[in-house]
Design a protein that fits this description.
Blueprint (H helix, E strand, L loop, with lengths): L1 E4 L2 E4 L1 H12 L6 H25 L7 H10 L15 E5 L7 H12 L6 E5 L5 H15 L8 H17 L4 H20 L4 H25 L4 E4 L7 E2 L12 H15 L3 E5 L2 E4 L5 E3 L5 H12 L3 E6 L20 E3 H9 L10 H7 L3 E5 L8 E4 L9 E17 L8 H12 L2 E7 L3 E7 L10 H11 L3 E16 L4 H14 L6 E4 L5 E7 H17 L3 H4 L13 E3 L4
Parallel strand pairs: 3-4, 3-10, 4-7, 5-7, 6-8, 10-12, 11-13
Antiparallel strand pairs: 1-2, 8-9, 12-13, 14-16, 14-17, 15-16, 17-19, 18-19, 18-20
Helix pairs in contact: 2-9, 3-9, 5-6, 5-7, 5-8, 6-8, 7-8, 9-10, 10-12, 11-12, 15-16
Bound molecules: adenosine-5'-diphosphate and aspartyl phosphate.
Pfam family, one: ACT_9
Catalytic activity: L-aspartate + ATP = 4-phospho-L-aspartate + ADP
GO biological process, one term: threonine biosynthetic process
Length: 570
């Protein structure tokens, strides 16, 4: 089928598909969508013609090559210049694509907004990433002949094959991947080692398969979709396997590729979350656990979209982790700063770096529940009305290591802080919460740069050894950071209430830090007391109904920005 628009004949399989769905399965009008597409197609076609005339050719491609070309052609394919092709991004996490049933539901969701032209990002199905990691660890020691019997490999195979069967799509879309996955595990068994690079390659099978299955399903039901591996369309990262950072060149490269493909042949892009390509190694990298959120916001910025939606299994960002306290409630509005702080300090719901691209391009992020799409979710924007805000959310980060470092030099000596931090820099360890005086520092170490493990004892011993050259060091393990995310302009009120609660729980706070971010106050307590504290704090701030007490203006005195107090050594 073809449509006439602007005097040009447009090949429009994608449009046909939308109409087929409209009449058979979903009831919506798609005439405006078609009109928009035609208009957009006409513009893009002219732009493309200009490009061809000017350069004598074109072409897509991923990796560094694409970056160079994209930069070259920025004039024609600037990241925002083609925003009309797509309007929003919808990212679905593992829980949203955990089964054939779930995939059908999210297909309806994707297609239920006739005036949206979404880009879709998917994570691996359910717990696939964890299973692949476990399979990799088992392969190291199980022997080549036993690889086929690894329970987690069978689980991953069964899940994907069953999903294929239930969705009635062609098994060949993932059969090569399943074979290659088993070969890879055999390779790991032969080598008897699982390097970070191999680990990233191993987990990439999860996203590569979920997106292929979903795209095949959309095509089967008549909605034209195209699968993409992020590492093939310009997601360029550092070579920090298991925790790679996205490089700037990604934005023009991804925009160029997606717009060019849409121009040539419109189809809903279905893109792997979590994955990238190392700029030196050209090997597959991953963005850290939960990294698909970051993939989504990166694409949102690259395409200059109107909204970024991240679909989860909860009704938005909640007042605390629901696995700690079931009475957690959705938070309707957050700022990028609040969301970033919350994620950084351990709320699993968002990837720690994911707010950055959205904030840089000022694109609202909506956290929604794919199991309950009617729930309003959480809207994250640059600013919001803070006049009534006190506490927004409580976040717990467990199993944190704390260091008390007291200078052996005399008071008045300068350079102590610089020396301490240069040691951390040399050892590649980042620090979370800090409280300082002229001759002492208390701080917590950030284990998040290390994949799914805490700082190992050997590394800690090394840190202490280095620090002991200039200071007396006390290492305190099994601590928790409780972060109170909210309006730090009301810090005195928050602290007054928090300390009252903690005192009634008989808990001693060992360190407190109020960051310059204006949205976070962190308290350090023993691991063993942390959950009980979070529950009591939640009850007091969100359930006792006396929040008004906290907003009495006369009492609202602040602690200065960046202040930090070391309360006691335990
Ligand atoms: N403050 C919080 N608000 C919402 N969810 C939270 C919070 N803290 C932890 N979580 C956990 O995060 C999960 C959602 O994040 P995640 O598992 O990464 O979702 P997805 O895999 O769907 O992207 C929830 O199921 C919940 O258990
Ligand atoms: N599959 C990856 C990436 C991801 O973002 O997953 P999810 O969206 O399910 O948190 C992980 O488990 O880390």
């Amino acid at each position: 089928m073809a449509l006439q628009s602007h005097g040009v004949k447009i090949p429009c399989q994608g449009f046909t598909a939308r109409m087929a769905i409209s009449s058979n399965q979903l009831s919506f009008s798609n005439s405006r969508w078609i009109e928009d597409c035609c208009r957009s197609w006409g513009r893009r076609r002219r732009a493309k013609a200009m490009k061809v005339a000017k350069k004598g050719g074109g072409g897509g491609g991923g990796g560094v090559e694409a970056v160079l070309k994209a930069e070259d052609e920025e004039e024609l394919f600037s990241s925002n210049g083609n925003a009309e092709n797509f309007t929003s991004i919808m990212k679905f996490g593992g829980s949203s694509v955990a089964s054939a049933e779930r995939m059908k539901e999210i297909a309806s969701l994707v297609l239920s907004f006739p005036h949206e032209r979404p880009v879709v990002v998917l994570s691996a199905m359910g717990k696939t990433t964890n299973k692949l990691l476990l399979a990799g660890e088992k392969a190291v020691s199980c022997g080549v002949s036993n690889v086929s019997q690894i329970e987690e490999l069978s689980f991953v195979k069964d899940l994907h094959q069953r999903t294929i069967r239930e969705l009635e799509v062609d098994p060949s879309v993932i059969s090569a991947h399943l074979e290659e996955l088993e070969q890879l595990l055999k390779g790991i068994a032969v080598m008897k080692e699982l390097t970070p690079r191999t680990r990233d390659y191993l987990v990439s099978f999860g996203e590569c398969m979920s997106t292929r299955i979903f795209a095949a399903y959309l095509n089967k039901i008549g909605a034209k979709a195209r699968q993409y591996d992020a590492f093939d369309i310009g997601f360029i990262t550092t070579d920090d396997f298991t925790n790679a950072e996205i490089l700037e060149a990604t934005y023009p490269a991804v925009a160029k590729r997606l717009h060019a493909d849409w121009t040539n042949d419109p189809a809903i892009p279905i893109i792997t979350g979590f994955l990238g390509k190392g700029w030196k190694s050209c090997a597959i990298t991953t963005l850290g656990r939960g990294g698909s959120d970051l993939t989504a916001t990166t694409i949102g910025k690259a395409l200059g979209l109107q909204e970024i939606q991240v679909w989860k299994d909860v009704d938005g960002v909640l007042t605390c982790d629901p696995s700690i306290y079931q009475r957690a409630e959705p938070v309707p509005y957050l700022t990028f700063d609040e969301a970033a702080e919350l994620a950084y300090f351990g709320a699993q719901v968002l990837h720690p770096q994911s707010m950055r691209p959205a904030r840089e391009s000022d694109i609202p992020v909506r956290v929604k529940n794919s199991y309950n799409p009617k729930a309003p979710g959480t809207l994250i924007t640059k600013s919001r009305d803070m006049s009534k805000a006190v506490l927004t959310s409580i976040v717990l980060k467990r199993n944190v290591t704390m260091l008390d470092i007291v200078s052996t030099r005399m008071l008045g000596q300068f350079g102590f802080l610089a020396k301490v931090f240069s040691i951390f820099e040399d050892l590649g360890i980042s620090v979370d919460v800090v409280a300082t005086s002229e001759v002492s520092i208390s701080l917590t170490l950030d284990p998040s740069k290390l994949w799914s493990r805490e700082l190992i004892q050997q590394e800690l011993d090394h840190v202490v050894e280095e620090l002991e050259k200039i200071a007396v060091v006390n290492l305190l393990q099994h601590r928790s950071i409780i972060s109170l995310i909210g309006n730090v302009q009301r810090s005195s009120l928050i602290l007054e209430k928090a300390f009252r609660v903690l005192r009634t729980q008989g808990v001693n706070v060992q360190m407190i830090s109020q960051g310059a971010s204006k949205v976070n106050i962190s308290l350090i307590v023993n691991d063993s007391e942390a959950e009980q504290c979070v529950k009591a704090l939640h009850h007091s701030f969100f359930e006792s109904g006396d929040l008004s007490e906290l907003t009495v203006d006369g009492e609202n005195r602040e602690i200065g920005n960046g202040s930090a107090i070391k309360l006691n050594n335990v």
